[in-house]
């Protein structure tokens, strides 16, 4: 329930509404408008490649070597974004913050990015779509990316002064996600209404479980 409702203080209760899809309480780090269905990729690690493995020391002997290393990182990142574009991936959903070079090439190749998503949000998206996070540097750049989620829409959403990402997913299960936008004059009222609604949903869930048995 926590990931499927957003409390918005400062508006009358009558402004509350139900929206299809999920409202992610993060602004786009990069937003590239697109029409129709698109493919989304879940990632849990930085897409900017590291020069060494964890625990391995990397020694730079000269300025030329340092610049060559930066060029390698840039070229590798661009190659990855090209690889995503060629696989029709138009949205990256990341649990970690991505580097500036990733955001730059995402914008260049028409890939929207939402970063710093919580583990609960990532788990919910995985459950809805049946897709697991992608390991970018464990795969060949020539291999087709199959672990993608179908997104029916992807757009910014302004809730009073907070910018969010509103994303619709094609569900692989019977559950069709919707998000409750719960409005109220102050946070305390919203919290009371949210608690009451969550209690009502819990009661209905228990009731239907009893009926099924």
Automatic annotation (TrEMBL):
Name the record gives this protein: BBS10 protein
Gene assigned in the entry: Bbs10
Superkingdom of the organism of origin: Eukaryota
GO biological process: chaperone-mediated protein complex assembly
């Amino acid at each position: 329930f926590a990931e499927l409702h957003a409390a918005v203080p400062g508006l009358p209760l009558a402004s509350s509404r139900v929206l299809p899809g999920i409202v992610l309480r993060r602004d786009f780090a990069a937003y590239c408008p697109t029409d129709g269905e698109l493919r989304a990729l879940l990632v849990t690690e930085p897409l900017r490649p590291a020069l060494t493995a964890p625990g391995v020391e990397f020694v730079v002997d000269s300025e030329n070597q340092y610049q060559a290393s930066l060029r390698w990182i840039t070229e590798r990142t661009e190659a990855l974004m090209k690889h995503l574009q060629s696989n029709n991936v138009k949205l990256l959903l990341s649990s970690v913050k991505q580097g500036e070079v990733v955001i730059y090439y995402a914008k260049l190749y028409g890939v929207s990015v939402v970063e710093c998503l919580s583990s609960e949000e990532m788990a919910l998206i995985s459950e809805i779509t049946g897709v697991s996070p992608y390991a970018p540097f464990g795969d060949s750049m020539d291999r087709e990316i199959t672990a993608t989620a179908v997104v029916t829409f992807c757009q910014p959403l302004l809730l009073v002064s907070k910018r969010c990402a509103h994303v619709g997913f094609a569900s692989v299960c019977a559950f069709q996600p919707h998000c409750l936008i719960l409005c109220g004059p102050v946070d305390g009222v919203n919290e009371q209404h949210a608690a009451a609604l969550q209690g009502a949903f819990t009661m209905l869930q228990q009731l239907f479980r009893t009926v099924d048995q």
